[in-house]
Amino acid sequence: MINENLKKIDRDEIWRRIQNFSFPILTYKNKEQFRSRPMTIVQKHFEGRIFIFSHYENEDYLNEEEFKEVTLTFSDKNKNFMVLRGKAKLSNDQNIIDQLWNSKVSLWYPKGKKDSSLCLIEIVTTEGEIWETQKGFFATKIEELKSRMEGRPPKISKKIDFSLPHPKVLS
Prior knowledge:
By secondary structure, the protein is of the alpha+beta class. It has one domain: Electron Transport, Fmn-binding Protein, Chain A (Pnp Oxidase, Chain A), CATH 2.30.110. About 20% of the residues lie in helices and about 35% in strands. It is built from 4 helices and 8 strands. The protein has helices spanning about 10-20, 95-100, 105-110, 135-150; strands at about 5-10, 25-30, 35-40, 50-55, 70-75, 80-90, 120-135, 155-165. Strands 1, 2, 3, 4, 5, 6, 7 and 8 form an 8-stranded mixed sheet that branches. The two termini are about 25 Å apart.
């Protein structure tokens, strides 16, 4: 469910941020426990959907018939963070696989893009959160000291809750 009170952020802004982060962590609930794994995003643009290569046997929670709730968590060396929430399902759409296939992907999937166990995790993003660190290392330490003396939490980052427009379909 999308919260109508969230700040609207356009896809270009989210894509710019995604490109500055390293490997996202994909998290979903598998039966009674959460499962998290580092993943790689290989697409060249963002239209509200994220595609990640995987193997069917690794995806016992996801299937091709229905979307399930997931989160992608990103961080960078400057201690900025972003969480994207959405719904995911598996896809074997050969057109999208062909569009996204590259030499980096082929290293991880040596049987090639016709491998019958190869699939895409298709994530339709709807909303998320960004935490921007607003102070450098020394300014952060000074703020932590001040906050301790004043008995309040430190003010070292800005949080932005956002929603995304409905995604476009890749063609």
